[in-house]
Amino acid sequence: MQPKDLEERLRMKLSLTKVVNGCRLGKIKNLGKTGDCTMDIPGCLLYTKTGSAPHLTHHTLHKIHGVPAMAQLTLSSLAEHHEVLAEYKEGVGKFIGMPESLLYCSLHDPVSPCPAGYVTNKVLQKSMIIGVIEGGDVMEERLRSARETAKRPVGGFLLDGFQGTPTTLETRLHLLSSVTAELPEHKPRLICGVSQPDEVLECIERGVDLFESFFPYQATERGCALTFSFDYQPIPEETLLQQNGTQEEVNYVDQTKKSKTTSCNQEMTSFEINLKEKKYQEDFDPLVRGCRCYCCKNHTRAYLHHLLVTNELLAGVLLMMHNFEHYFGFFQAIREALKSDRLAQLKELIHRQAS
Ligand SMILES: [Zn+2]
C-alpha cells in the first residue's frame, strides 16, 4: 500500500474547540465507513463483553440516553466469532446487534487485566491503526515511545500501562503529562484501564481524550448502583435535596469502608451504593432522584434489592441501564463544564465524594 493511500484511509480528524489548562474539548470527525459519524471529547467508549453491551439487548441498550458512538470490542471476542462472521458476511457490527456503532478493537478486556506491555500494534484489515505508547514507569522509555509512535501514520494513540502499576498516583500523572506533551495535538488519545470518575478527571487535565467504560459494568457486577453527583451547578430550590444527598453520600463512604466487597475482583468505591444491603429493603426511592433512566423512572431501590437477593437476572439488566446512563451523563457534564469554564467546580464535587 502506498503511504498516500494509507493516509487517505486514516482520514479521522480531531478538531479541538477549546483547550483549558491541558483539558481538551472537541469533536472527532470523519468516523465510520462513510465518514459521517462524529464523537465528542472528552468521552468514553461503550464497554462490551464478548461482543455486546453486558446484560443488554439491542432494544434495552437503545433505551439508554447518551450511548457513545463507539463501542469497544476485544480481539479475543472477535476471534471467537471468527468462523461464524466469515459465514455471516454482513460484518461484526450487525452480527452483535450494533449495526450503527463504530467499533474499536482492543487486544484485551480491561476487566480481565493482563500485564502492561502486552498490547502491541496490530494491523486489522480496513481498520485505522491506533499507536500504543509503552515504556512502563521509565520516563525516558515513555518519551521515546511517544516520539517514535508520533512519527508513524497512526490515527490516534493508546496510553497503555498507566493503571495498577506500583508507582504512586503522582508519578503516574507526571508520566502521563510528559507523554501527552510529546503527541501531536490533532490526534485523539485514549487511555486504557482508567475509568473511575476522580481518575478520569485527573487524566483529562493531562490531555487524555477518551476512556473505557468498564467502571459502570464493574459496579453492576457487584450489585451496586452509581450514585455519585456530577451536578456542579445545583439550582437554588434543589440545594436542600443536594445537601441531603451529600449527607447520604458521607454515610455511603462509611459503609464502603466497613463492607468492601470483592466480587468482580474490584472493591466497592464511594461513588456507588450496595443495593444488596438490608437497609434498601424498604427504600422506595429511585436509585438516584431526578435520574431519567428507564430503571429510575420505573423502579425503586427496594425492588432492585429484592431482585439482587433473589438472584433475578433482571437485576443486572436494570442496574446496567442505570449505571451506563449515569456514567455517560458524567461525561456529558465534563464537556459542559469545560465549555462553561466550570471544570474546577465539577472536580471539587467529584473529589469530595472520592474516599
Ligand atoms: Zn437511573
3D structure, described in words:
The protein is of the alpha/beta class. Helices cover 40% and strands 15% of the residues. It has 14 helices and 13 strands. The chain has helices at 3-9, 58-61, 75-80, 82-88, 92-95, 139-151, 169-181, 197-204, 214-221, 239-258, 294-298, 301-309, 314-339, 343-353; strands spanning 13-20, 23-31, 37-41, 43-44, 46-47, 70-74, 102-106, 130-133, 156-159, 189-191, 210-211, 224-226, 272-274. Helix 7 (169-181) links the parallel strand 9 (156-159) and strand 10 (189-191). Helix 6 (139-151) packs parallel to helix 7 (169-181), helix 9 (214-221) packs antiparallel against helix 13 and helix 12 packs across helix 13. The longest helix has 26 residues, at 314-339. Zinc ion (ZN) binds next to helix 11 and helix 13. Keywords: Cytoplasm, Membrane, Metal-binding, Mitochondrion, Mitochondrion outer membrane, tRNA processing, Zinc.
What is the H/E order?
Answer: HEEEEEHEHHHEEHEHEHEHEHEHHHH
Shape: globular
How many E strands? 13
Q: Major β-sheet, in short?
A: 3 strands, antiparallel
Low-confidence sequence ranges: 116-123, 242-264
Rounded radius of gyration (Å): 20 Å
Cofactor: Zn(2+)
Subcellular location: Cytoplasm; Mitochondrion outer membrane
Subunit structure: Heterodimer of a catalytic subunit QTRT1 and an accessory subunit QTRT2.
Domain tRNA-guanine(15) transglycosylase-like: 125-353
